[in-house]
Design goal:
The chain is of the alpha/beta class and 274 residues long. The chain is built from 9 helices and 10 strands. The longest helix has 69 residues, at 111-179.
Length: 274
């Protein structure tokens, strides 16, 4: 135990106080003597924490039980033991709950039994201290978890709002593309079809769900693929255009290579050349 153990002995008889001090000579306890309840309260107010109090029952002024009741009001963590002669046993036992007294020890006491009682009382004190620390730590952890949970909920809410806004923007973008009078077809850097407007679907003869994910060699006619490969490999240009005749008709095709930091790929804009 890193905390020094301090025991307050309260009795109006000097011989009793000396006997208690002798009892703990071989122990690493700091024993403080007080000759009255008032003096004991003054010690509690002006000194570092007291782990244990041993108080006589019969004292002038405030008796031991009333004194320990006052101790419990202001220092509830301190363990309280009352000493008393056999004549006062019935009165003390009936008042134990009022003073929240840990043990009643009759006079004259047995030194060995009193030492065991003191040891058990101190174990109880430090067990309560440990429990209080654990409860405080648990409360702090729960508060931190609650804060994290609230932050997570806010983050999820913000992220959901962003996704909804993004989805609305995509929906509007698709509507704009579908309103264009020419086909707009987009491929990623690997040649996978990732975008196709309404005119593009009509031109390619398929539905978006069936076209998306197809490689350009499967999605667009061979003549358009030849134009794309020449543009990418031979021309090395970012834009190119050509008039292409295929079995589906004559098309004016314009290719645009995307090379931005956020997105790369190829866009084909196809209009009927008839």
């Amino acid at each position: 135990m890193s905390q020094s153990i301090r025991i307050l002995c309260v009795d109006d008889e000097v011989n009793v106080l000396r006997a208690l001090q002798r009892l703990f000579l071989d122990d690493d306890y700091e024993v403080i003597a007080a000759s009255s309840a008032g003096e004991g309260l003054e010690v509690l107010r002006s000194s570092p924490p007291i782990q244990l109090i041993i108080s006589d029952y019969r004292m002038p002024g405030l008796n031991g039980v009333d004194f320990l009741k006052e101790v419990y009001r202001h220092w509830p963590e301190t363990v309280r033991i009352v000493l008393s002669g056999y004549a006062d046993t019935a009165a003390v036992v009936s008042a134990i709950n009022e003073g929240h007294i840990y043990r009643f020890v009759p006079k004259p006491w047995n030194d060995d039994e009193l030492r065991v009682t003191i040891g058990n009382a101190l174990e109880r004190y430090y067990l309560h201290q440990k429990n209080a620390q654990l409860m405080e730590s648990l409360a702090a952890t729960n508060a931190e978890l609650q804060s994290l949970n609230e932050n997570l909920e806010n983050l999820v809410r913000d992220r959901t709002d962003q996704l909804m806004l993004h989805n609305r923007a995509l929906h509007h973008s698709q509507n704009i593309l579908d309103s264009l009078p020419m086909a707009v077809i987009g491929f990623d850097p690997h040649g996978i079809l990732v975008q196709c407007n309404r005119k593009g679907r009509l031109l390619l003869g398929g539905e978006t769900a069936g076209l998306l994910g197809c490689h350009r060699r499967e999605a667009i006619p061979d003549e358009v693929n030849e134009f794309v490969e020449k543009m990418l490999c031979s021309y090395g240009q970012d834009t190119a255009s050509s008039r292409i005749a295929s079995e589906k008709g004559v098309w004016n095709v314009r290719g645009i290579v995307l090379k931005s930091e956020e997105q790369e790929g190829l866009i084909l804009i196809i209009e009927s050349g008839a």
